[in-house]
Specification:
membrane, 2 domains, seven-stranded mixed β-sheet, transmembrane, 14 helices, alpha/beta, Glycerol-3-phosphate (1)-acyltransferase, acyltransferase activity, two-stranded antiparallel ribbon, Plipid/glycerol_acylTrfase, globular, 55% helix
Length: 329
């Protein structure tokens, strides 16, 4: 009957009706009411199972929210003092506390070598750029909390074009990076963070952690002009937390042609993050920008070689969240 209907169909509508009838006949269901009846039955069967699995998950979320609240409460006196001095100081410290709590909960965030960041005075911090530099946000939060000072940051121009970002960028002293403005910030005694690889490194680097700095030396010239030390920085497993599809040819072409950072990023995995700060490279009037850029690149590469297993592995990075008798490198 179904075959005769399909072969004798005169138009698209009648053909689709025949297909629908054939599916009904194949499934053994006489009408749409039977479909609804089956769906209702499946919903009745699986709803209790869904609830059984969701409720424990909600309890875990509630526990983590409680831990985050305790992170904030632990610093309530610091926050009260910060707000009494300046509204934006209080806002910065509050957000830093929230980000620090998130890093501790989701990534077990650690920082090694924070004592190398000066308590006073300027320094240029040069870091490897992950697909999403969430590790740098955790670092900024830890500097605000433990060092009691903010760190200016250099970001790509496209961030300043995102609606709603302006206030956030202003409060956290983010600049788009003309050399003169960077030098001015350092000469004023501020810390300044910059990633020479920038968006290119974020999109096109991968789990082998290549540094994609090209021939960039502007950051080195900034350090020379401001006469400040340079501190290399790298975060272990940052590529396992978030990964980019920028290695696909289409997204590479899109960026090179239109400067559009449209490569999808995936992840958010709760892998272990450890930020390592290298020894400061002091100001030396006898070297030029090219030589200093090479020294800084070697410094960051040394941190990668010492603290990152190549290629990075998401499962291994997840397992590092669990306590081990073996100390990290």
């Amino acid at each position: 009957m179904s075959e005769f209907c399909l072969t004798s169909a005169q138009d698209t509508v009648s053909f689709l009706m025949c297909v629908f009838s054939a599916l009904e006949e194949w499934a053994g269901l006489g009408s749409i009411a039977d479909y609804l009846s089956v769906l209702e039955y499946l919903l009745w069967v699986f709803t209790p199972l869904v609830i059984v699995f969701i409720l424990p998950f909600l309890i875990v979320i509630l526990i983590y929210l409680s831990i985050l609240f305790l992170h904030v409460y632990k610093r309530k006196n610091q926050l009260r003092e910060a707000y009494s001095n300046n509204l934006w100081d209080g806002a910065r410290k509050t957000l830093a506390t929230l980000w620090d709590g998130h890093g501790a909960i989701w990534h077990g965030y650690e920082i090694h070598g924070l004592e190398k960041i000066p308590d006073k005075g300027a320094a240029l911090i040069v870091y490897y750029h992950g697909a999403i530099p969430v590790d740098y946000y955790y670092f900024l939060a830890r500097v605000i909390i433990q060092k009691g000072r903010s760190c200016h940051s250099v970001a790509d121009h496209f961030l300043f074009k995102i609606p709603g970002f302006k206030l956030l960028l202003e409060v956290f002293s983010v600049i788009h990076g003309p050399q003169e403005e960077c030098v001015r910030a350092l000469r004023s005694g501020h810390l300044l963070g910059i990633s020479p690889g920038g968006v290119r490194e974020a999109l096109f680097s991968d789990e082998t952690y290549p540094l994609l700095w090209g021939k960039r030396k502007g950051f080195a010239q900034v350090a020379i002009d401001a006469q400040v030390p340079v501190i290399p920085m790298f975060t272990q497993n940052v590529r396992e937390g978030f990964r980019s599809l920028g290695t696909l040819r289409f997204f590479r072409w899109l960026y090179e042609r239109f400067r559009l950072p449209a490569a999808p990023v995936y992840g958010g995995f709760p892998v272990k993050f450890r930020t390592f700060l290298g020894d400061p490279i002091p100001y030396d009037p006898n070297i030029n920008a090219v030589e200093l850029a090479e020294k800084v690149q070697l410094g960051v590469q040394s941190l990668i070689d010492s603290h990152q297993q190549i290629p990075g592995n998401i499962l291994r990075a997840l397992l590092e969240r669990f306590p081990s008798k073996h100390k990290p490198q």
